[in-house]
Write a structure and sequence with these properties.
6,7-dimethyl-8-ribityllumazine synthase activity; single chain; LS/RS; riboflavin biosynthesis; globular; 6,7-dimethyl-8-ribityllumazine synthase
C-alpha cells in the first residue's frame, strides 16, 4: 500500500515527533511512504491532500497536526473546517484520509501527551479502512 503523510509545521515541537512516530508505525505495517509533505498549518492541508489523492500511486493519506488552544476560539474554527474538508476529499476520491490532528481545546502539555496515540491511530486508520474497502469493492 502506497501512502502519503502530510504534516503541519505549526506547533513543530509536537508535529515533528508525530511524524517520526507515524513513520515507525508505517514501517511496522509494511506501508510504502511515497510522499512526505510539510504544510504551514493544518488549514493548509486540504489543497495538498487533494493533489496527493489525484495520484494513481497513492492509496491513502495520513494527516498529522496539533491544534493547541489559544486565547480565542480560533482553534475550534480551524479544527471544524479542516475536519470537514478532509472528510469530503476522502469521499470524493474514495481513498482513506486519516484525521491525525489532535485538538482543539488542548494545552501544549496535552498535545505532547497525545503524540504517540494520535500518530499511531492515524496510520492504523488508513490501513484498516483500506482493508475494509478492498473487501466491499
Amino acid at each position: 500500500m502506497n501512502i502519503a503523510i502530510v504534516v503541519s509545521e505549526f506547533n513543530n515541537k509536537v508535529t515533528s515527533r508525530m511524524h517520526k512516530v507515524a513513520l515507525e508505525k508505517a514501517r511496522e505495517l509494511k506501508l510504502n511512504v511515497k510522499y512526505e509533505c510539510n504544510v504551514p498549518g493544518v488549514f493548509d492541508m486540504p489543497l495538498v491532500i487533494d493533489t496527493l489523492l489525484q495520484k494513481k500511486d497513492i492509496d491513502a493519506v495520513v494527516t498529522l497536526g496539533a491544534i493547541i488552544k489559544g486565547q480565542t476560539k480560533h482553534d475550534e474554527l480551524i479544527a471544524n473546517v479542516v475536519a470537514a474538508r478532509i472528510s469530503k476529499l476522502s469521499i470524493k476520491y474514495q481513498k482513506p484520509v486519516s484525521l491525525g490532528i489532535s485538538g482543539p481545546g488542548m494545552s501544549e502539555r496535552q498535545a505532547f501527551a497525545r503524540i504517540r496515540p494520535v500518530s499511531e491511530r492515524a496510520v492504523d486508520a488508513i490501513f484498516n479502512t483500506a482493508k475494509e474497502l478492498k473487501k466491499i469493492k
